[in-house]
């Protein structure tokens, strides 16, 4: 899942990003509204965690612009105010969800995951395919009742393959969903991650390489 965190309190923004990365999400960060509009102009995010009170371009204006552009990204609006009127106002701007500060981090994670499921055709919270069971909420993967320990990137790659439901996923799409904007597009990290993932999943092999196209499960 690709997430953009837009928050001008840098310590908070970086803490949110670090926590979401630990949940196997690819996270970019910007500290003002202008940066948010720039990034969303060329990157398709599943979820945008958007503070309201932002410098350069107010969070409300960012939300209005994204909605007007018919973005497929789901918007989780953050604010220091939890009053009902503020929540209503934020939702009426087009935000998909609203969370007041301070918040419990695991609630933020749960809301981001729920919105991520809504950014694509509906799928069950727990994914099952080819004898593999993946639970994003618990970060648990099993195959034939055998628990498989994966790194964050291996987990993210497997989740994207399972969400594709048998369709081919290109290397570019995997880089976009499992890594952040700092990744070198010419890196071989996807191939290396796929090798270790296949080894951990064991036999019979379930991940197929489609030459010149990508991978499918």
Automatic annotation (TrEMBL):
GO terms for biological process: regulation of DNA-templated transcription. The keyword Methyltransferase does not apply. It holds the Pfam family Trans_reg_C. Residues 124-217 bind DNA. It comes from the Bacteria. The modification 4-aspartylphosphate is found at residue 51. This is Transcriptional regulatory protein CutR. It comes from Sphaerisporangium rufum. The gene is cutR_1.
């Amino acid at each position: 899942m690709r997430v953009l965190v837009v928050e001008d309190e840098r310590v908070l923004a970086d803490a949110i990003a670090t926590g979401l990365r630990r949940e196997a999400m690819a996270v970019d960060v910007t500290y003002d509204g202008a940066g948010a509009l720039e990034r969303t102009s060329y990157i398709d995010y599943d979820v945008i965690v958007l503070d309201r009170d932002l410098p350069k371009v107010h969070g409300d204006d960012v939300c209005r612009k994204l909605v007007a552009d018919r973005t497929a990204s789901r918007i989780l609006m953050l604010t220091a105010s939890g009053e009902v009127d503020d929540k209503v106002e934020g939702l009426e701007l087009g935000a998909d969800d609203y969370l007041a500060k301070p918040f419990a981090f695991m609630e933020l994670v749960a809301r981001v995951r729920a919105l991520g499921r809504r950014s694509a055709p509906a799928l069950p919270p727990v994914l099952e395919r080819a004898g593999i069971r993946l639970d994003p909420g618990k970060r648990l993967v099993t195959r034939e009742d055998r628990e498989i320990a994966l790194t964050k990137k291996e987990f993210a790659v497997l989740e994207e393959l399972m969400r594709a439901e048998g369709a081919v996923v290109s290397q570019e799409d995997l880089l976009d969903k499992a890594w952040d904007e700092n990744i070198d597009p010419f890196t071989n990290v996807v191939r290396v991650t796929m090798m270790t993932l296949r080894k951990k999943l064991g036999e019979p092999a379930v991940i197929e390489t489609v030459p010149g196209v990508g991978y499918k499960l």
